[in-house]
From TrEMBL:
NCBIfam families: beta_helix_1, para_beta_helix
Coiled-coil portions: none
Residue stretches making up the Right handed beta helix domain: 162-296
Pfam families in the cross-refs: Beta_helix (PF13229)
Superkingdom, natural source: Bacteria
Region (Disordered), start-end ranges: 28-94
Residues in the signal sequence: 1-30
Positions with biased composition (Low complexity): 43-74
Keyword Transport: no
Protein name in UniProt: Right-handed parallel beta-helix repeat-containing protein
Source organism per UniProt: Nannocystis pusilla
Keyword list, A-Z: Signal
Length: 469
């Protein structure tokens, strides 16, 4: 489902008390700049952009495919091999494409000719593409020779809103890099069982408005797998999944984006062993009104490293994401029954975790949807390792949560229609070491802030994991 434009940024204000406005814009979403194709083609292709991880083992290097291997044995003429390279087509490939004088015709032609279930392989080398590439066959695999070996360069693109657009079910993209798309890197709309494996989407210019909005952008999908992949430099969200279900995001790296990883209006996601760092915000989990799919919940995030997300915000001015304050680790907005456990959350200068509700009384446009649940309820934050968060919170969070700001922040807004003291709606904190906490009482005008952990020291039932496959 194509997402409509997202609502305006979330701002918190205490009218007549301090005059303070807290702008916690919440994330990228809903497609407010999907059709941007205004790249000027001058961005470079350096793959070394960004700071290397400072903690944890990098599990993001994909295993190289066999495509691009020089033939062994006696060299005989092979009519299936590209004449420009002499490479043989790998045994399990149904088509094999090498860089040529017309890479668009070669690659798009192979994909158009492919039957359902085919494997289209790409050789090592640089493919120069000036238009969007489309995949419409079902159960097709597009495979490169390796993330560092097969490069799809869109720096001269002047046609199409995406680098690769997927409209077939069961599609896997694997083992290559997409560079410098003016719009989204790889997008899939309303498809089932889409897989991104060992793929990198990159923009070399740091903090550039000319970068594309999203690296991976599956929306309205059932069955999403994103693994062993990387996104660098997206001006909105690097890894995004919207209005989808049955989602697995594992062993990825996201850095130098505005938002590293974003799960929006989606249900049933597992995020594990990802490394989100040097973004404006690390991992966002939330719901927004006005989208075709509502009431996203049940995201389980564990064993992620979410650190040093203090990058400058370079989102397009006027969009919601442009107002996300630097220094946010996790953010949960109007989403219920999510679980964050066994994560390392450190060095995020504004907060480790922020939990907030969507409420027009705090400056948002009316939801205009009687079925929209504006409150963040029943979330479970436990057994995480917090350190060095909130040391220099961005304005205006500093005026609401104090300096230094606590590791975990909650706006204190409760659903007036919920049963009083219903344990199911409490956002529970449990065994988070020395992490500190504040309820900054947004809905009470900031009048009754509290750092008392006792009301939120509780447990919820743990969420099930998705199968590894």
């Amino acid at each position: 489902m194509k997402s409509p434009g997202r609502p305006p940024l979330l701002s918190f204000a205490r009218a007549g008390v301090t005059g303070l406005a807290l702008t916690l814009s919440l994330g990228a979403c809903g497609g407010d700049d999907k059709g941007d194709t205004d790249g000027d083609g001058t961005i470079g292709t350096d793959t070394t952009v960004g700071t290397e991880p400072t903690a944890g083992t990098d599990a993001t290097d994909a295993t190289d495919g066999t495509a691009g291997t020089e033939p062994t044995g006696t060299d005989t003429e092979d009519t299936s091999a590209p004449a420009t390279t002499g490479e043989e087509m790998p045994a399990d490939c149904d088509a094999f494409v090498s860089p040529s004088d017309d890479d668009v015709a070669a690659l798009q032609g192979a994909l158009l000719d492919a039957a359902d279930g085919d494997i289209v392989c790409m050789a090592e080398g640089l493919f120069e593409l000036n238009t969007e590439i489309s995949i419409s066959a079902n159960n097709l695999t597009l495979r490169g020779a390796g993330r560092e070996q097969t490069i799809l360069d869109f720096s001269t693109q002047d046609l199409g809103a995406n680098g690769i657009k997927i409209s077939g079910d069961g599609v896997t993209v694997q083992n290559f890099t997409v560079r410098e798309t003016p719009g989204d890197g790889i997008r899939g709309d309303d498809v089932a069982d889409i897989t991104f494996d060992g793929v990198s989407v990159e923009w070399a210019a740091k903090e550039s408005l000319e970068s594309g909005a999203y690296g991976f952008y599956p929306v309205g999908c059932t069955g999403v797998v994103i693994r062993n992949s990387r996104v660098i430099g997206a001006r909105d969200a690097g890894i995004y999944v919207g209005q989808s279900s049955n989602i697995l995001v594992e062993d990825n790296e996201a850095y130098d984006n505005v938002a590293g990883i974003e799960i929006e209006n989606s249900t049933g996601a597992t995020l594990r062993r990802n490394h989100a760092y040097n973004n404006t915000g690390g991992i966002l989990i939330f719901n927004l009104p006005g989208l075709p799919v509502q009431n996203g919940k049940h995201t389980l995030a564990y064993e992620n490293i979410v650190e040093n997300n203090n990058g400058n915000n370079f989102g397009i001015p006027g969009t919601s994401v442009a107002a996300v304050p630097p220094g946010v680790g996790f953010m949960i907005l109007a989403s219920d029954e999510n679980e964050l456990r066994n994560n390392t959350i450190r060095g995020n200068r504004t907060s480790g975790v922020i939990i907030v509700s969507y409420n027009e009384a705090i400056g948002l446009e009316p939801a205009d949807d009687p079925n929209f649940d504006a409150f963040a309820e029943g979330n479970y934050i436990h057994d995480n390792n917090f350190s060095d968060n909130g040391t220099m919170p961005a304005t205006p969070v500093d005026g609401v949560a104090g300096v230094p700001a606590p590791d975990i922040q909650f706006d204190g807004c409760l659903n007036p229609d919920a049963a009083p003291m219903d344990p199911a709606v409490v956002n529970c904190l449990w065994q988070n070491g020395d992490a500190d906490y504040i309820n900054f009482d947004l809905c009470g005008g900031l009048a009754n802030k509290s750092t008392d952990l006792e009301p939120v020291t509780c447990q919820h039932t743990a969420l099930p994991e998705l199968p590894a496959g």
